[in-house]
Specification:
The protein is an all-alpha fold. It has four helices and no strands. The longest helix is centred in the first third of the chain and has 28 residues, at 4-31.
């Protein structure tokens, strides 16, 4: 936290620094020395020219025809293809496109067997039990105990019927086809 006395001390110190800076600038102007303050003007172009006077510009490639080449019609120089820079995309390893395959193999679809009525009934019971429970929860908020028991029994009966319908024998085929 700052105090009014601390603020006054800082303001007084800042004023003293500004006064000392003004005195230095006035003394430098009387002596004929250039000042480095914000009031002095620098010749940026002269400084840049002094910095870059040692540098030479890069030599540009000549557009004249090579020695031994003849002039074309109307006295214009004739350029070779090697004189013209290459522009555009070249060809590379990523430009390769493979040839289309003629014999594309498509697997045969397995035969569709109609679902047995008992299997469909088992799936309906497995899905219907929880759905009826959810419907009772959303519709009534709470369901009578006999309704809950009937939904659970429907689900369990569907699971038992579904497992009973699974095949019991294994013919030794692991499903791989060559």
């Amino acid at each position: 936290m700052t105090t009014p006395a601390g603020d006054a001390e800082r303001d007084g110190e800042h004023d003293r620094e500004q006064a000392a800076e003004r005195d230095r600038e006035q003394a430098a102007e009387r002596d004929g020395e250039p000042t480095a303050g914000p009031s002095s003007e620098r010749d940026w172009n002269a400084e840049w020219a002094a910095l870059t006077s040692d540098l030479e510009p890069p030599s540009a490639p000549s557009l004249a025809p090579r020695a031994g080449s003849s002039a074309g019609s109307f006295g214009r120089p004739v350029y070779r293809m090697s004189d013209v820079p290459v522009t555009g995309a070249g060809s590379g390893p990523r430009d390769y496109t493979p040839a289309p395959e003629d014999d594309a193999w498509e697997p045969d679809l397995p035969p569709q067997r109609p679902m047995n009525r008992l299997t469909a009934l088992a799936w309906a019971a497995i899905a219907g039990g929880p759905l009826l429970m959810l419907l009772a929860l959303l519709g009534f908020g709470s369901a009578p105990p006999w309704y809950v028991a009937a939904c659970v029994a429907l689900f369990v009966a569907g699971c038992v019927l579904g497992f009973a319908r699974l095949p019991r024998r294994h013919d030794g085929d692991d499903g791989a086809e060559v």
